[in-house]
Amino acid sequence: MLVHAGGWGSINVWQALADLGCFLLAVPESAGGLGAGAVEAGILARAVGRHLLIEPVRENVVAAMLLAVGEDAGDRLAALTAGNKRYGLAFASCEQPMRTIRGAWEADGVLVAVDDGLLLADRATLSVRPVPLLDDTIAGDVEVASGGFRQIASGADWPALRQRAAALLRLMLVSETLGTIDAALDGTIAYVRERSQFGGPISAFQTVQHRVAEMVVAAREAEAVTLLATLTFDAAGPGAAFDRAIAGAVRRVAHAAELVADSGVQLHGGMGVSDETKIAAQFRKLQAFRPQAGGTDDAALAMVSSGMHRQSAVLVEG
Amino acid sequence: MDLLLHPADRAFRAEVRDFIANNLTPEMRDGQRRIIGPYPEPEPARAWQQVLAARGWAAPAWPVAHGGPGWTAIQRFIFESECALAGAPIIYPIGIRLAAPVIMKFGSAEQQERWLPRILTDADHWCQGFSEPGAGSDLASLTTRAVRDGDAYVVDGTKLWTTHAHHANWMFALVRTAQTARRQDGISFLAIPMSLPGVEVRPILSIGGDHDVNQVFLDNVRVPADCLIGQEGKGWTYAKYLLEFERGNGLFSGRLRAALKRVEDGIGVERINDAARLMIAEVTFEIDAFEMLELMTIGVLEPNAAPGPVASVLKLRASRLKQRVARLAIDLLGSEALRRDDDGLRGVLVTDYLNSRAATIFGGTSEVQLGIIARALAGI
Lengths: 318, 380
Ligand SMILES: Cc1cc2nc3c(=O)[nH]c(=O)nc-3n(C[C@H](O)[C@H](O)[C@H](O)COP(=O)(O)OP(=O)(O)OC[C@H]3O[C@@H](n4cnc5c(N)ncnc54)[C@H](O)[C@@H]3O)c2cc1C
Known about the structure:
The structure holds 2 protein chains of 2 kinds.
Chain A: H1 11-19, H2 38-50, H3 57-67, H4 73-81, E1 87-90, E2 98-102, E3 109-114, E4 117-122, E5 126-132, E6 138-144, E7 149-153, H5 158-194, E8 196-197, E9 200-201, H6 206-236, H7 240-267, H8 278-287, H9 289-293, H10 297-306
Parallel strand pairs in A: 1-3
Antiparallel strand pairs in A: 2-6, 3-4, 4-7, 5-6, 8-9
Helix pairs in contact in A: 2-5, 3-5, 5-6, 5-7, 5-8, 6-7, 7-8, 7-10
Chain B: H1 7-23, H2 26-33, H3 42-55, H4 73-85, H5 93-106, H6 109-120, E1 126-129, E2 145-149, E3 152-160, E4 170-176, E5 187-193, E6 199-205, E7 211-224, E8 228-229, H7 235-248, H8 253-267, H9 274-297, H10 310-333, H11 345-355, H12 366-377
Parallel strand pairs in B: 1-4
Antiparallel strand pairs in B: 2-3, 3-7, 4-5, 5-8, 6-7
The complex binds flavin-adenine dinucleotide.
Flavin-adenine dinucleotide (FAD) binds next to strand 1 and helix 12 of chain B.
């Protein structure tokens, strides 16, 4: 999709996702949701990444999780999970203007999860400038009219919920990227088998075979780290083990994303650098991973300083 | 799949930790710490193996019928991880992990009885006679001949790069028993006693300067015919089966983690600053990823099950990571890495770094693994 052509997404896609119950995934059963874990959210995100959906799915799965604890949550939550309302979501501060808020363009409101509570600004109070992003989605630079923010959740349980929500959002980004890696790999394999040069398929060349094999290895590794971080979250929740697992997942998925994106485009030849092909869109999407995924150095240093890196990563204490 | 350690797993882990604390001696640990090739020297690794064998734990991947412990996949994973992190010697794999699966699947009952119990205690030390001067990656071009003569095969030829041939009393070898249209069809799998007349072992020094591999000359060696494993002409099939175990059945991640700890110990605390910590973390994340990959692929296998072509992914990652860890030591040592006069851990790290280059060559080179991955996993 070309940069200038984009809207926020398709209402049909959005409705179909809502009808499947996607936005109920992370809502607790007590609030009428599915109470699912990171594994299920990851499966959804992987499909989003595989099919390059541009709709703000991740943000709204997590928005529903947060809204579920909000005051007068009922109607607002029901409207979101039914697909009738969409929100932009941010975890940073609400200093104005708020830059690059995913999901904010043409949204019904913006949610900001700050340290001491959840803030909501309704559409009427927002001024949003659309910002096309590297991954073909449209985010927004947001200004909220004075008095526009209302705090709709807070309390003793809030910090833990906010931490879980931020972790889930990051995990879903990782899974989404894995889905794009899968698709780029599959598409590249199909292409090298079908593209013929020098009298046969280019897959006959060993240099092509080895490059594809390196993509397979990187994709397998990316799958492993994604699963590790996801299962660690479900087993132990946020904490030192998860910090280690998600930092590792971000780094290794970034590595795989780069390798698969570069090789994928290279093996498509000229087609790879034209906007005609999926691989070009996948390349852009994969480039967008690193700048979104957040830093990992603090977690890396904490892991080594504590000596935790000398212990198994997969046998989780809980 | 569930990563949480359940009470039964914790109890098992406590039992393993107890056992290690009571039986792993400082000499055994030191032997493993000084390892500069793929495998430790027979002593003190054998002593540890015998301690394990007495407890019924020497061959976690064997079926119970042959002396395996009957553990679940996760127990096996915990056991290997605990042994590695405690610094226990690596169990010499060429008997237990390579020869044994072939003997179990294709050997006669008599052969199983004769060889398996002695492999379990390292009473027999096996070496692997596959490669030859003219047959490396293209293994099927091997020319060592075995000609049937009454109740024996007469073997002529030479094997190259034979690890531990100088310690071994048995070799399993691929030999050519027939000239066939398809080269693979003329290959057989033969066990050769190293004590027979006509077997000569010549050492080859490694890039690090030590002796681990050899050339083995086989000159008119009369090998009893009952040492043929399986059927004549089926050796290639058995070898391919064996290579899956060689490449992907090791549960190696704990060993990589222990190697990383050895690097930290060897370079000295004064070199560990934040820049070093970040480098250590980077390698750790790769090891973590590999550990999960192992758990997902072979951590779920039944005893004695072959991992399939994903073994090539594991071999490739494990070998590169081995080199990555070894290289980290050199990067962190700075100019001290130049010096080869240290007979402590630092010297070990430098020699290990040199020898680690072999990891992407033995067991099938990286290029060979990539070819298998492209064919079997990408379908091209
Ligand atoms: C330390 C060590 C221990 C060993 N222990 C044993 C042992 O105990 N028993 C045993 O039988 N063998 C052993 N080997 C031998 C090992 O299996 C071989 O070295 C290996 O299979 C490679 O064969 P080669 O050395 O002849 O290299 P070659 O096959 O000559 O390869 C040379 C280069 O060419 C590349 N190449 C070859 N063919 C292809 C191809 N088709 N496509 C692309 N590139 C290709 C290779 O990848 C490599 O980079 C050991 C080797 C080492 C280094």
